[in-house]
Amino acid sequence: MKGLKHYESRNSNIELLKIIAMCAIVICHVVAELPNSSYVEFDDYVFKYYVPSQSLSNVGLTIIHQLGFWGNTLFFICSSWFLINSNKTNYRKIVSILLDIEIISILFLVSYFLLSKGKMNLVLGFKMLFPHSFRLFWYLTSYVIIYMVHPVLNAVISSMPKRNHLIVSLCSCLVFIVYNYFIQWYFGSVLISWIILYFFVAYIKKYMTDFQKSRKANILCCIIGLLGIVAIPLGINFLGTTFERFSQFSLQHFDDISRWNPFHIILCFGIFNLANQREPRHVSLINYLASLSLLCFVIHSNRVVRCYIIPFIWEQLYLNGFYNNLILTSISFGTFLFIVSLAIACIYNCTIRQITDQYLTPTIYAGGGKLFNRIIEKLMMLH
Question: What is the pLDDT of residues 312-368, one digit of tens each?
């Protein structure tokens, strides 16, 4: 097992952002289960926070739910910033991630099935056997795809003149991110948005050094991003409570994993650049915990946790009077789940992953990873 010193070379300012982003995603998923009771027999805890209301709690919970989308964006920007300088893909890492998803999914499935004495939705159980096929971990699947092809994307980017790079980035961003967010254009997709954002990150890193170093410009980005994030649900809530024709509008009307909020992107760039301006720090513990963030995602986003454990805890919180301040309860619950998931990730990393990395990963890599590596190298030669 790698010691903490192995992680000293990474910039802890950026690694800390990854930890914060993952914590935000966990909090989002906790709030996301509040309106749902599809897989449990109780529903006292159900609270449809996305319905326009005179109570600002609904708006507050909607904004907290957006933390997940913001966290997705921040984590991706942090990762792609360093991938832009990389021309190699570690296919053993890809195999390891895919194995982690499959193993953790099956472990949770079998454990819950035995503990509940078979009281589990069989369709959901079947899907957990094939988490990649049923898009149960869409974020990691998209992350792996981008990571696999990033050398090709970098080759395309390096071949583009500055002007063409800017035109492609701006036009595609306006159409597939900004326009798609507000108009909900059906041609949008997670992967398209990620590739576009990857090109945008590359342009900022290569050509906008003054912006990267400007404290005022990035603070302004943070302010604009925050104002946009808060103003949209507030505006929908105002329309929904004031005009009957808008009463059916959901406060989450613009939230969807296939569409990236442009205000989230603006805020994330501001935060990232401000963190990157600081003197680099190398704190082994922070870097190690950040390296477990994808494992933390797999553990807390497992369907047993999302569909059974989180609703059960919400029910207990409701019955014990913790609904008086749902905003504080949601943040506390999400933070607690994040810490628990991180602890389980640490245990898994020190035990099961050591076995898979030593025996399973090399075998699978030898079977298919080398072939894909040669394909990518051929594509790079076209450049």
Answer: 999 999 999 999 999 999 999 999 999 999 999 999 999 999 998 888 877 776 666
pTM: 0.92
Q: Which residues contact 254 (CB under 8 A, 6 or more apart)?
A: 181, 182, 184, 232, 261
The token duo for 276 is 């990157």
Q: What is the pLDDT of residues 363-383, one digit of tens each?
A: 776 666 566 666 656 555 554
Give exposure, 81-118, as e/b (b: 16+ Cβ within 10 Å): bebbeeeebebebbbbbbbbbbbbbeebbeebbeeeee
- Identify each DSSP E strand in 273-374 by its residue range: none
Q: What contacts 233, CB < 8 A, 6 or more positions away? A: 59, 62, 63, 66, 251, 252
Joined together, the tokens standing for residue 336 give 């607690």
The neighbour count for residue 22, using CB atoms within 10 Å, is 27
